[in-house]
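Suppose you are handed only these lines of text.
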Amino acid sequence: MIKGDWREELTQGRWGIRGECLIDEPLDGLNSWRVGGPADLLVRPLDVEDVHTLFAFIRHHRVPWRVLGGGSNILIADKGVRGLVIQLSDMNRISPSGVCQLTVGAGCPLSHLVKEAVRLGYAGFESLAGIPGTVGGAVAGNAGALGQQISDCLQSALVAEGAAVERWERDEFHFGYRSSAIDDKHMVLEVVFACQRGEPKLLREKVAAAREHRRQAHAVKGATAGSVFKNPPQIQAWKLIDQCGLRGKRIGDAQVSEHHTNFIVNHGSATADEITQLMTLVQQTVMDQTGVCLSPEVHKMGEFDESLSSHGKHLHWTEEK
Ligand SMILES: Cc1cc2nc3c(=O)[nH]c(=O)nc-3n(C[C@H](O)[C@H](O)[C@H](O)COP(=O)(O)OP(=O)(O)OC[C@H]3O[C@@H](n4cnc5c(N)ncnc54)[C@H](O)[C@@H]3O)c2cc1C
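From them, the structure of the protein bound to flavin-adenine dinucleotide can be written out as follows.
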């Protein structure tokens, strides 16, 4: 715990933040793996002005911070997260802002964006139908499916880096496969998408096809964070994991899915430590048997026991956010 009652300054309104501020807020209900301890303080700013105030507070108290989207691609530590966790769920508006252009709050669920784009006859998001999480999280990880990525239509975005809020143009993001230049110093606040015009009926059919593909390929029951590892060049991660005999491998209540071997399922009472241990085991086994180093697609947040992954020597997370 960071010393002093810095948190009460926010919850008692002394800084004038209008959004919700919650002390020791549990995070296990805010991520799709359903694991992890509480945040010292969870804050949901209402707008960019609140974000500016929040960063003044962060600078003043020198507290660490992280941003949490829909929690669908993240492993939150059992000990929770020290400092502030910022969630932009109240910055979620979608506004048509030009010809075939949409300005979207980073906290907007991706599913709402897909739906609204199709309703307006804007093409570019159909294959993303069914991907959980928020627009901000999707941009940070360049989420995609079936050959379409969120970056395809992205024109620019408002990004907070500490106190400064700047507009980034598309090429400043350096988008790659499930990656972007957004790291733990940045928070995407609002995104402008420039779309192509599409025939709504055709777009609806594409959405239905994407959902059907997902229903068949991702028929995993239980709490998961989607694909755990990125696909290495030339081969899919699930095939390597399967070849190495890891289908169904279990540590506690965490199990390599029987249906999709690149998913890890929490059957009810798995801990983040158990998931970490299972990830390390998968990574180490695949390395030993095939020489391929699997890189995590999921992010991590909070205080982890480093020995759980260093033990297995391979578990390099994509980036320290
Ligand atoms: C069943 C299932 C299926 C999935 N299928 C796919 C798929 O087909 N394709 C795919 O790409 N992904 C898939 N995913 C993974 C996940 O849904 C995506 O990566 C999603 O875009 C993550 O968004 P989020 O808001 O949930 O991010 P979170 O999980 O909350 O966060 C992920 C990372 O992004 C950062 N972040 C979140 N919001 C912001 C922001 N506003 N600014 C800066 N950084 C931010 C966080 O700090 C964290 O490091 C799947 C997940 C599940 C559970």
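What can we learn from it? The pocket of flavin-adenine dinucleotide is lined by residues 32, 66-74, 88, 106, 131-134, 136-138, 140-141, 143-145, 178, 182, 186-188, 218, 224-226, 299, 321 (CB under 6 Å). Residues 239 and 261 are 8 Å apart (CA to CA).
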